[in-house]
What we know:
Chain A is of the alpha/beta class and about 290 residues long.
Amino acid sequence: MRCPTLQSNIEISSMEDNVHSIEVYLHPVAAFAIIDSHERRSKDNQTRVIGSLLGTKTPDGVYEISSAYPVPHSESEEEVAIDMKYEQSMYQLYKTINPTDVVLGWYATNSTIKMHSVLIHDYYSKRDPPPVYLTFDCKMRSGRLDIKAYVRCSLGVETKGYIFSPIPIKMAYYDPERAAVNLLRQSISTDTNETPIKTGLERFENVLGSLEDSIDGLLAYVEKVKSGDIPADSKIGRLLMELVSKVPKLDPNQFDKIMNNTTQDLLMIVYLTNLTKTQLELGEQVAHIPSN
Amino acid sequence: MTEILGPIKSFTAFIDLTEGAQIEELRKLLIENGLIEANEEEDEEKEPLERLISVINLMRNVFEKQDKTIQELESILLSIASLLHIVPKESSAKLLSDLCSTALAGTTPSNARQRLRLLDLLFYQFDVKSRMASVVFWHKLKMSVQYGLGSQLVIDIDKLKKWMVNWSFSIDEKQRAYKLVWELYKTTDKKSISCRALTELVSTYDSDNEENISTLVTELVVMAISDPDRYIFSDLLDIEAVKLQYSEKIYQLLEVFSSGMYGSFLKFCDANPGYLDQLGLEYEHCKHKIQVLTLLSLAEGESEIPFASCLTELQIDIDSFEQLVIDAIRYKLLSARIDHVNEKVIITNCVRRTFGLNEWNLIHDSLLSWKNNISHFRSNLKSFQLLPVGDQKT
């Protein structure tokens, strides 16, 4: 029996394989690994670093890049060589800790696409899924770190050529990554480029402070709307309404009571962890004392 | 191999041919298909640009023939696109437009999706802010409407708005674009995008400069009311073009849905018998919607509402009322509990039908009390003293 929908099913599956429907999500950990590899290059003869991108791919063409490692390579005007053996053993090692991850493509830490890119892309094209090519403009020519993603398409009638077609790329964060990136951002404004990692209560206090600042910002906006300085946008209003409706309506005393109770618990946890830490350190010190 | 850098930064192609040879290969394909005579001498005299133009136009016949696979067509199209950099800037948009028409030559309903993909491929080659991208975008939009590809082409109205600013579209071009988007999604399951496009379209008219504006407004109101996910109508009343229709029946109907109660809906129906049918609106659907909206009005600003007052206002029995409350909660318009023993509904939160100064004041008060709670707590927190335990060296 012939199924009338079969034809369209086949078409859909071939569309999924299509490289143009690929969307790339990049995690900051991978981005940092790539920038780090660029910073550690040998500065005499290397202008760029290349490496493999690892992560997962969904059936509908979403590439999520969660990690990356550099691959040694050498290139001159005439030729390019990459250490395939190193690349493969790195991948095998990586695979043992993250069995679900695959190589999704490769990166280069410069922004210009050269003839050599085609050859390196050839190497990565031997695997499944179709590789993506990420360029990191580590020289920051445009004033910022430009990250672009490409897939390769072929062109030409008899003599075949290639073109790297840009595809959308977005940053993706897990919650801990977001927190880490936010912390790192704070170091930009300091003189030493350092940010201390705040401990429990200090951090709590900081978060509360930034929450209060945000509310202040909102209040200023609402006041301007009320006084007529800003035209009232009911769309924003509705969103704000939704936001404030999510905050439980408590009178200050009640609020204090609840918060104080939980803070007591929090303090106890902080106290106990510090105590444990001290105990462990003490134990270590004692172990180092020669026994006579 | 030579590296070709196109007029647009992102366009980088690698092929082991000079531009002239690349055009020659394309011409060879045309000769094989019997579209041009292999008259070398004459061709040598022609400028590469001239030859490229004739290639673009004649290639149309190859695309019409349907004997090439989609990959082959893709390669041909990209090959031509990578040559566009030899075209002087002022005529490049025109040639790109011709190239799009070529790519669409021989489109049938069965291969329309593939052809749309070809255009997509072209679209991505250009910086989305450039005028070149807008050329491809027009073709994409037009052909999607023609072949009903609303389910294939996803258009984000907010993005489109930004693009149109970049492309410095005139009002007329914007209106045409919105009209096409509206048409594209009208019959698909993405009606809300269609409605959004129509809203934007109507918003572009400011005075009585358009004769058919009343038809558009009517269409918009009908579309909004029949959208099963839409319960807020007050924003439509803010649109200038809608305000101009204040003497019309459609405006009254919109007013009923934006702030009126069930009673006023019934009155409107009595005063205008057959009007809903004439608009193509289902009476039962409208009735249910206005009942949900009436419930919202009753709940506004209250912490609890007794069954009795709701039942009289909504003119329904207790079972249907319960169903109505459940529906309102399901649509995320209301968060409430039904208290059967005391015969009342306890409201924790409800969506406002209209949004005015009153609502802004309410937000202000809530924000202020929230802020006070937090700052009070912060000052309390500071008074807690941590006992110095652990390694404090760092």
